[in-house]
Specification:
three-stranded antiparallel sheet, disordered C terminus, alpha/beta
Length: 293
């Protein structure tokens, strides 16, 4: 079960949905949870408060101040909430707390889902939309390697060695038959780090045949027009590097958006992404493709 399946599951109680949704998203604020669960902010606050009163030793939810102290505080699962989710999912993953430094990142990724749900409407979204978190998106991306290596992939050390240098998408979105790997950028990483991520995608796609299920476009969502221009420039630098001049398989398509502008793209509204007349993005996005025979 993923976040959309959780939201559409009418058999779950509010408190159960709340814990599962925060588990899948990592962090979210009360207003985001209100919109996702289609409940009032008051109801969200009361549900969290009641859960935290159940266990005086360990909390179901941990609150953190808002990113840069702007906006509502963020919530993540506490140890008691994590234990409940693990029992419900029949899994045994080790609990860990997200760091304060990740708050802006999680808020931005959750906002992408909130905007899509609002734009599509709940019924259409429940029928057509799928939103995978980092762990699940990475597992999906690596599926072709899992198939190729078979039983060897079950060996943890072997798998870790093969996964070195592989992309770890922040999220994966499916709308009907279309899908995209996603990266949310908060401007906290410098050009070398972003270029390193782009190289990871290029190297991975060079191993993927043209019919591979992991061969989907990468959508970068960031915080400003200037950052989009920088990221497009860094991608152009990568395209000129000798390593990528004679790729055996096509490189990925990459699209860049200021946060909020990606929604219509995910809804399937087509346009010339490199056009200066793009009505959606004000010339801040571009699909940068290599030419290949």
């Amino acid at each position: 079960m993923m976040v959309i399946e959780t939201l559409s599951n009418e058999e779950l109680e509010t408190q159960e949905k709340l814990m599962l949704v925060v588990y899948y998203l990592g962090m979210a604020d009360r207003h985001q949870l209100s919109k996702l669960l289609n409940l009032s902010v008051y109801t969200i606050d009361q549900a969290i408060s009641k859960l935290n009163k159940k266990n005086k030793e360990e909390k179901h939810f941990i609150s953190l101040s808002a990113p840069f102290n702007r906006g509502p505080k963020m919530y993540q699962l506490g140890p008691a909430g994590w234990d409940w989710v693990m029992g419900w999912l029949e899994e045994d993953r080790k609990y860990y707390e997200r760091s304060d430094a990740q708050k802006r990142h999680y808020r931005g990724m959750t906002d992408i889902l909130v905007r899509l749900l609002a734009a599509m409407g709940r019924e259409e979204a429940f029928n057509n939309l799928r939103f995978y978190n980092t762990n699940d998106a990475t597992e999906l991306f690596l599926y072709p390697w899992q198939v190729a290596y078979g039983e060897e992939w079950e060996d943890r050390k072997f798998r870790q060695e093969k996964c070195k240098g592989m992309p770890k998408p922040d999220f994966f979105i499916e709308n009907g038959k279309e899908g995209w790997w996603g990266e949310f950028d908060t401007r906290s990483e410098g050009p070398n780090r972003i270029k390193g991520k782009v190289r990871q995608y290029y190297r991975a796609f060079n191993q993927l045949g043209e019919r591979s299920r992991s061969r989907k476009p990468i959508v970068w969502v960031t915080t400003s027009d200037s950052r989009v221009r920088d990221m497009k420039s860094w991608l152009e630098d990568i395209k000129k590097e000798p390593e990528f001049q004679d790729m055996k398989n096509p490189p990925p398509d990459m699209f860049f958006f200021v946060e909020g502008e990606e929604t219509r793209f995910f809804l399937g509204q087509k346009y010339d992404a490199c056009s200066s007349t793009s009505p959606l993005t004000k010339a801040t996005t571009c699909s940068l493709k290599h030419s290949y025979a």
